[in-house]
């Protein structure tokens, strides 16, 4: 099947794209594709509006995945690219990746002993925050990020915010009853000052929703309530910022 708007484009990759687009994970831009490849994502198709420029970017920023990109990338006309992606990215690169099976992620999350904490976002509302948290979790080598509630942590906007790092940590949606085992540290301004707490590697670190904080259900399951230092007149920190500070605090005493 050729693309009527771009008859010169190789039929294969565009046809593969159309076949996979509804259920694959959109990797939007060079950095998302680079990260996904580094962390072992299966990427059946990748397109660029300028193959030479993308490979030059790889030479400069990601020589480790240059060869893989060389084999994977298909150049398409800008018009074809714009039809494949909802919001064209400045790097003119996009790819589709296979979402890791839920069962495999749940197995990683359940595995004990755990070398690094699991982050729980309890009913998060903001897709950008969720993406930023996944990026933080990947950076700190956290075991995974699980969300409760209705937000889909694999929503395209979350994947965009996560810069392709969903493949570097186990990301799933679960219920409070399904949270991974391990001591549950819930972050709340009313808790004990985190500076006096050692967070263990198998900790489950829970953060409340942007609107209403921790749910009653999660609070009831918490083993410890922990607070980040904050002067009295400030009511709370941003959700992703709170996760960043907490993972940093964990890393200070971890073999990280
Ligand atoms: C934006 S805050 C929630 C604010 C919300 N209006 C409330 O009533 O709690 C999102 C989450 O970040 C974490 N957080 C923010 N500031 C914190 C602090 N000083 N200490 C501990 N956790 C904090 C908590 O888990 C909180 O539920």
TrEMBL record:
Entry's Gene Ontology BP terms: methylation; RNA processing
Gene Ontology molecular function: RNA binding; RNA methyltransferase activity
Domain tRNA/rRNA methyltransferase SpoU type as annotated: residue spans: 118-248
This protein's UniProt keywords: Methyltransferase, Transferase
InterPro entries documented for this protein: Alpha/beta_knot_MTases (IPR029028), rRNA_Methyltransferase (IPR051259), SpoU_MeTrfase (IPR001537), tRNA_m1G_MTases_N (IPR029026)
One Pfam family, short name: SpoU_methylase
Protein name according to UniProt: TrmH family RNA methyltransferase
Ranges that cross the membrane: none
């Amino acid at each position: 099947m050729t693309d009527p708007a771009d008859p010169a484009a190789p039929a294969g990759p565009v046809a593969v794209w159309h076949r996979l687009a509804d259920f694959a994970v959109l990797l939007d831009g060079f950095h998302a594709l680079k990260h996904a490849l580094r962390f072992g994502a299966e990427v059946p198709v990748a397109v660029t509006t300028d193959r030479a420029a993308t490979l030059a970017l790889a030479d400069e920023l990601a020589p480790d995945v240059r060869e893989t990109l060389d084999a994977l990338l298909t150049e398409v006309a800008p018009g074809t690219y714009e039809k494949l992606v909802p919001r064209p990215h400045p790097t003119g690169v996009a790819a589709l990746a296979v979402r890791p099976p839920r069962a495999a992620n749940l197995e990683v999350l359940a595995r004990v002993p755990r070398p690094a904490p699991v982050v729980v976002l309890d009913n998060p509302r903001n897709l950008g925050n969720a993406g930023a948290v996944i990026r933080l979790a990947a950076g700190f080598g956290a075991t995974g990020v699980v969300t409760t509630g209705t937000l889909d942590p694999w929503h395209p906007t979350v994947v965009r915010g996560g810069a392709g790092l969903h493949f570097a940590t186990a990301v799933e949606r679960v219920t409070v009853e399904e949270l991974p085992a391990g001591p549950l540290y819930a972050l709340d301004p009313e808790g004990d000052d985190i500076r006096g707490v050692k967070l263990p590697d198998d900790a489950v670190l829970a953060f409340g929703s942007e609107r209403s904080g921790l749910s009653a259900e999660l609070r009831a399951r918490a083993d410890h309530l922990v607070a980040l230092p904050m002067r009295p007149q400030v009511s709370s920190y941003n959700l992703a910022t709170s996760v960043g500070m907490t993972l940093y605090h964990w890393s200070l005493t971890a073999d990280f």
